[in-house]
């Protein structure tokens, strides 16, 4: 969806402000926001694409005026309600009004193994890749109202296949409970003038990772 | 409590609950209250366990961070066999050092050269290689970085005080999938014969994102 999360090429946000390597949190609640988000995610009631979609569907003014952990918390509240785990009334009250669903919460001793295991998103190939490294392709000019990982600045643009990564879960489907629908995934490299037109940096190239259905051959 | 960064905490209009985080004093900010209320609700419902929350925080504050990535880079600089493995199958090479798991399942290493500098961004959210770099810094998640890295990376580098030599090409990698990119900065001159541990001290987090270069030997304390 063309939401506020799709920031590439926008202007006016001011300079990037570097920060020291050890500075991870700017308030105590950010630590708890991180941990609550990860622990609730470990219940397995939603996937990474569902959670990205929950964040990007925040109203644009809200998204852009929220810090990143605020966005996470607002997204988490939405996921918890959508998943039937809590009600809006319970979030407002800050206490349970009904018993919880039967789930297996993440235990402290599971944290290290669960983080170390991660989640694999590659899948066995069911068909050969349509494109090879060096092929000229164009991204489709599409504007779905649903979740997509094809950023606006790279739609309808000509580029070259730079890498073939294998077959991966397709977020556009996975975010909406429509299955993994795995597809070949490629890195597509664009010249800056293809993306940004006149005056673009002649010594710049930009790449995205794109699923096969985002692409047409040239 | 450190101050907020005004570049993305700026509130042009009143959002009620968005106000007040980062304020000094004994009063809890609205976000603090909101997260406390949510945590206690989830504990009461039996969905999260406080000890697990503590373990998660401790992991990313003390165990998983950019020193992992610095070890990968130092080994790539020192060991041609490891570098070849990193080029062929970065996931396997990095996992062999024990840096596995969440947000680092599918790794790609990209090498800076005198001709080309690499920079990594996630314009759509905050995708970042956690097992080797830890949690992303605030600036990496900020609209300022996510918007500008793909159209004006030289301007972004200038914000970090970095000017590339004339004629150096820039390649920006927008992490739009579950592949995670680690920049291998160029090894600084004057480091011949250094141990991997000493080399790792030259490798900053930002140099592995591509918003900095590796430190020169004269930049680190003797």
Description:
The complex is a heterodimer of chains A (218) and B (222). Chain A is of the alpha+beta class and 218 residues long. Chain A folds into 2 domains: 28-117, Nitrile hydratase, beta subunit (Cyclin A, domain 1, Orthogonal Bundle), CATH 1.10.472; 122-217, SH3 type barrels, CATH 2.30.30. In chain A, 30% of the residues lie in helices and 17% in strands. Chain A contains 8 helices and 6 strands, in the order ααααααβββαβαββ. Chain A has helices spanning 28-41, 48-56, 60-64, 68-82, 88-93, 111-117, 171-174, 192-196; strands at 122-123, 136-139, 158-168, 183-191, 204-211, 215-217. In chain A, strands 1, 2, 3, 4, 5 and 6 form a 6-stranded antiparallel beta sheet that branches. With 222 residues, chain B is α/β, with parallel strands linked by helices. Helix content of chain B is 41%, strand content 11%. Chain B has helices spanning 6-9, 30-44, 50-63, 66-78, 80-88, 90-95, 130-133, 138-141, 143-148, 153-159, 196-200, 205-209; strands at residues 106-111, 116-121, 169-174, 179-184. In chain B, the strands form 2 sheets. In chain B, strands 1-4 form a two-stranded parallel ribbon. In chain B, strands 2-3 form a two-stranded parallel ribbon. The longest helix of chain B has 15 residues, at 30-44. Chains A and B meet through helix 1, helix 2, helix 3, helix 4 and helix 5 of A and helix 1, helix 2, helix 3, helix 8 and helix 9 of B. Strand 5 (204-211) of chain A pairs parallel with strand 3 (169-174) of chain B, so a sheet runs across the interface.
Of all chain pairs, the largest interface belongs to: A-B, 102 and 99 residues
CATH domain fold name of the largest domain in chain A:
SH3 type barrels
Q: Tell me, briefly, the overall form of chain B.
A: globular
Just name the CATH architecture of the largest domain in chain A: Roll
The CATH class of the largest domain in chain A is identified as Mainly Beta
